[in-house]
Structures are given as C-alpha cells and as structure tokens.
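4.2 Preliminary Data

To establish feasibility before requesting continued support, the project team ran the inverse folding procedure on a target of 243 residues. The structure was first converted into the token representation described in Section 3, and no sequence information of any kind was made available to the design step. The complete token record follows.
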C-alpha cells in the first residue's frame, strides 16, 4: 500500500501535479511528458508512470471508502471524521446507499408527472397533426372542385364563342348578298339613265329638233325619273339591314 503523504514524491516539479505520463532525463530528474514536450523528447519513465497510476487509484479507492455516510441536513456525502465534527453537530445521517435509494425514489416520483405531462403534450400534438392533415385534404378537395368548375366554364365560353362567331359570319353573308343585289340594281338603273341622258344631249345638239321625238322623250324621261325614284327608295339600305 502506498502512503498518502507520499504525494510530493509523485509530483512534477513543473506543474506540481501528480505525474502524468512521466519521462526521465539523463540527470535522473522526472517530469510530465507534456511539460517537457516543447523542449525535448526524452525517454519515457514507465516505472514511475505505473507507480503514479497505482497511487491515484489507491487514493481514489480510499476516498470512496471514506464517504459512506450522507448528511440529510447538508444534503451531501461525508466521511466518519466529518460526521463527528462541529459542522455536523445534531445533524441527521443515513448510510449513503440508503440515502441514494431515497433520492432515486424521489426522482422517480418527480419523473412520473413529467412523463404524464409529456404524454399529454404528445396527444395534443397528435391531434394538431390530424387537424393539419384534414386542412390539407380539405384544401386539395376545394382546389380540385374550383379547377373543375373553371374547366366547365372555359368549355362553355369556348362553345358560346364558336356559336356566336358562326352566327356573325352567317349574318355577314346574308347582309352582303342583300347589298350586292341592291348594287346590281343600281348599276342597271345607272346604265338606263346614262342612255337617256345621251339621247337628250344628242337631240339638243340638232339644229332642227324633232318636236314629236322631244315630246315623247320628255314624257319618257318623266316616267324614267318616277321609276328611278321608286327604284332608289327600294335600293336604299335600311339601317336594320346594315346593323
């Protein structure tokens, strides 16, 4: 067994801590490897390293063996010497294993409501997840319905457009035929008037006009004018026919 008061013999003269991975120099002095690494790379002192590890392990075991009592008033482990000291006068003590068990039971009791609250939160979160899914499904259904309605509306407008354009073209053709017929009638009337005008012009250029012919021509001209007035009234395009 290594005496605890030998700690100075196992301390590094640089860091004043128990040797960690000690190395030995040619002068037989030992140091921690990290303390000398920036200066040189001496051979490792494995024997001293093993002694230091054994010392630390022994010290830890003794420390653990000492703390077998738990002070209920200070809520901390104590050794036998501390238990009898003035600091812990009239204090309550328990064996450390018993105190640890009591603490575990108290923690277990505290853990139960936390687990219950966690479960409640998870249930609420699950209900929210279901609501989110329902909202998504509802939105998708509404979107599908809107698209279907607009698809039908587009089809209706397309069909209505075709029907109206077809009716417009048919109306255009009918009106064009009416106007064309009136133009042809006007062309015939214009031709007749030109012939009559040429006849009168020729008769006026003669030195001795034929009064009988002039009288007949005048009467014929009056009849032509009357007929032309009737024809013009028939050949005029009524506003309802053009609109």
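Position-by-position output of the design step:
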């Amino acid at each position: 067994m290594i005496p605890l008061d030998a700690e100075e013999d196992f301390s590094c003269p640089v860091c004043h801590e128990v040797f960690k991975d000690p190395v030995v120099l040619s002068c037989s002095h030992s140091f921690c490897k990290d303390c000398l690494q920036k200066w040189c790379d001496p051979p490792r002192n494995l024997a001293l390293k093993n002694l230091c590890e054994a010392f630390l392990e022994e010290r830890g075991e003794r420390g653990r063996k000492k703390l077998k009592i738990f002070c209920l008033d200070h809520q901390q482990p104590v050794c036998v010497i501390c238990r009898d000291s003035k600091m812990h006068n009239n204090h309550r003590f328990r064996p450390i294993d018993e105190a640890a068990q009591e603490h575990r039971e108290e923690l277990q009791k505290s853990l139960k409501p936390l687990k219950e609250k966690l479960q409640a939160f998870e249930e609420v979160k699950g209900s929210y997840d279901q609501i989110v899914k329902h909202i998504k499904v509802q939105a998708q259904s509404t979107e599908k319905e809107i698209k279907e309605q607009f698809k039908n509306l587009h089809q209706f407008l397309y069909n209505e457009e075709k029907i109206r354009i077809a009716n417009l073209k048919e109306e255009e053709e009918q009106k064009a035929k009416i106007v064309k017929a009136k133009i042809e009638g006007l062309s015939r009337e214009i031709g007749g008037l030109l012939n009559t005008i040429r006849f009168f012009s020729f008769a006026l250029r003669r030195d001795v006009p034929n009064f009988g012919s002039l009288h007949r021509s005048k009467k014929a001209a009056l009849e032509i004018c009357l007929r032309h007035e009737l024809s013009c009234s028939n050949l005029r395009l009524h506003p309802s026919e053009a609109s």
